[in-house]
Design a protein that fits this description.
Length: about 400
């Protein structure tokens, strides 16, 4: 039973962390700032796709190992904090190399990013499982989806403030490359430390029903097919999340596409980011209403359908100019917000308390499309072009949405 006082404190702690995390992550937004920075360091779409796969896929690949390790831990808050601090220093590493070598030796800087992004991503996976477990232990199940919606709204406000900062940083004529990116990354380094304060105030109750003896990793892995075979809802969730990965595949390429098609300058980084964040703010209100009327699964289904429309919109707007193309980022904001409000509450709803940690780990590791699709996306764009790749993603996503809509409960 979750105590009312602890629940309220935890609620505040999660909102605090969400606010400052969103403010921080604007400094390295994965759909605007980060792609633009990488395009300054290398023109290879395939290499960028590989780096983005590491960014998204590494925490998922290692999740089952993390869940095996964390399963026997009664409290996981310290592991969450360790993960946050490692991510923070990854920001600092990127900032230092960008500042000192971004102009004189861009390939050296780009090469070190594989290390920083790896650490950034591994720590995210380690922290993510702990975060979800603490959420489940401190927030009542009937309050979680609503908390995610409120959390997303506060995050969107913070991200908008961060977007204003990014817009200012990249519009100053006195702050040129690589100093502008180095400053943005340094702010991210500080911001993650501030965000971690939210978890310092949370009292985490000890987990119950944990195994008395730690089983071997091999025995642990052998149980994965059993969980999938016995739980249809969990199998369906794995399929749905892999479907949604097709829209994620091309999200970072929209910014590179705009830079190449329209020959825009860096001032558009902040402009597009503000449109994206506006989309998250507007949609947070919409997702919140849907969360009250429907369930998390309905939000997931809507996200998949919208993810199929965005590449078609991008193709159409590419003939109208860079200002109209901002609509693409507005719609991306809807997807980002919807995924945060929908996917994790959907999983927590179906995961049994005694197997929550395993479900979180299996979910990450089996989401294999997130790992391979950005690499394939970069390869397709480099060999077959943007329009073919965008069209392919649209077809796959719309078919997936149709199949999910007609799936029996």
């Amino acid at each position: 039973m979750i105590e009312s006082k602890n629940y309220k404190i935890a609620y505040i702690g999660f909102l605090w962390h969400a606010f400052f995390l969103a403010l921080t992550m604007s400094m390295l937004d994965l759909n605007t700032v980060f792609p633009s920075l990488i395009s300054e360091l290398t023109g290879s779409k395939a290499l960028f796709g590989l780096l983005y796969s590491i960014m998204l896929g590494v925490p998922l690949v290692f999740n089952i190992l993390f869940s095996h390790y964390l399963k026997t831990k009664k409290c996981k808050k310290k592991f969450l904090l360790i993960g946050i601090y490692i991510r923070s220093f990854s920001f600092l590493g990127m900032a230092i190399f960008t500042y000192f070598f971004g102009l004189s030796n861009p390939m050296l800087t780009f090469s070190t990013f594989f290390l920083w992004v790896f650490l950034f991503s591994v720590s995210a996976g380690f922290a993510g499982i702990s975060y979800a477990d603490i959420m489940a232990k401190t927030i009542p199940s009937d309050k979680r989806t609503n908390l995610y919606a409120i959390k997303q709204f506060f995050s969107s406000i913070a991200a908008f403030l961060g977007g204003l900062a990014v817009s200012r940083i990249f519009s100053l004529s006195t702050l040129t490359y690589p100093n502008n990116y180095a400053l943005s990354l340094s702010i991210g380094f500080i911001g993650l430390f501030i965000a971690s304060i939210g978890f310092l105030i949370i009292h985490e109750p000890e987990s119950t029903n944990i195994p008395t003896a730690k089983e071997s990793l091999m025995d642990y892995l052998k149980k994965v097919p059993t969980y999938l075979k016995s739980d249809f809802s969990f199998r369906r969730y794995i399929i749905v999340e892999n479907m949604a990965s097709f829209s994620i595949m091309i999200m970072p390429f929209y910014m590179i596409f705009a830079k190449e098609i329209f020959a825009i300058d860096n001032s558009y980084i902040g402009r597009y980011l503000l449109f994206q964040i506006s989309g998250t703010i507007i949609s947070a209100l919409i997702w919140g209403l849907l969360a009250k009327k429907f369930n998390a699964k309905a939000i997931v289904r809507t996200c998949i359908a919208l993810g199929g429309l965005i590449p078609l919109v991008a193709i159409g707007l590419s003939f109208l100019g860079p200002d109209y193309f901002a609509i693409v980022f507005l719609l991306i904001g809807f997807i980002i917000s919807g995924r945060r409000v929908g996917f994790e509450p959907y999983l927590l709803d179906i995961a049994p308390d005694e197997h929550r940690t395993e479900y979180l780990g299996i979910r990450g590791t089996l989401n294999i499309f997130v790992v391979i699709l950005p690499i394939l996306g970069g390869f397709f764009i480099e060999t077959l072009g943007y329009y073919f790749t965008f069209s392919l993603v649209a077809v796959v996503m719309l078919i997936s949405s149709f199949l999910l809509k007609n799936e029996k409960q």
